């Protein structure tokens, strides 16, 4: 093929790849960012004996012998999913690196996650246990699918194309998540007109996210090509043994890529902060600031569409100033957002929306560029393994942030100190980013340094 034909084919693959962002983002938006946490707190609150489901429930439910506040339960579930992923995803990633069928792994995990996620429809009354199991398993399976999805990025784009491709993918995801959320907003606000109870409208919305995720995954599964594994070292033994062997060597060899390790540490902290802010937004807005679910859904919907533009804008800024600088600027902006959220007065919709717009702009840019920048720090042929480590702290699976948020609430009984505590993650993220030499990291990984870093 000619150079033009090769570029045109690569562009078609990139467009097909974007569809999985569209598919899975609906689950993260409708379920993990908006609907699940407040609904789970209400259901668990009923089981704990709280009389008024609209008030913050400080009573506890028993989980594996532990007594956890109903208001903190979603935080603990998210943390548990991430801890489990930290052990599982690297093994999945090692297997992906050795597979010539990355898209099959991506789709298989996605469909399994959607099937488990659909069980959230049956969470009603005080049956919080089913919801706890379903959301944990769906989150883990979503993380597994993203390992393969992210690994494909290196197969379908050059180093100079990564920021643009990743930014468009994230933008496409925000748009997809926003479209489904808009439909769910109509259903929720008009549940009486549809002959539905408030709880049933939420349950249908949770189910719709699973169906959307499964249905749109068909597009990239059909249109993407499979790519042969690259630069895979031979290891004797079974497939599982080879995967563990590659995992061990990758962790051992990580010391040879100090800039990659430095970015992973930075990302672990600032992304935990981002994910917890996204996760906690609906809980904080409803339980602390006194907004109804309709206002919260509308605000998160606004964030989705603002983030669509934010991802594209940051992609253009990265082409001029480099992804590294844009990510660093983004962490500073997140610090300001956390402080602004702390002092928000109750039921002041205007200021709440202003902070939401700021979240959308910065969220769209930092998440998109983090993915593309990290891909430049990975040795070719080990994308699955390294993106598995990256994915352990990815969307909807924060560990330290949600744990700190939940513990702080349980100790203080207020979500304000819980939201303020998150600023430490952005401070630590910026600290490690400032210690990073991006050009050295890209060269150490054996990749070509883009025109702007």
UniProtKB/TrEMBL annotation:
Main location: membrane
Matches recorded under InterPro entries: Atg22-like, ATG22/LtaA_families, MFS_trans_sf
Subcellular location: Endomembrane system
Membrane topology recorded in Swiss-Prot or TrEMBL: Multi-pass membrane protein
Transmembrane stretches, start-end: 21-41, 76-96, 108-124, 130-152, 172-190, 202-222, 290-314, 326-344, 350-374, 386-409, 415-434
A matching Pfam family: ATG22
Gene Ontology CC entries for this record: endomembrane system
Keywords: Membrane, Transmembrane, Transmembrane helix, Transport
Record protein name field: MFS transporter
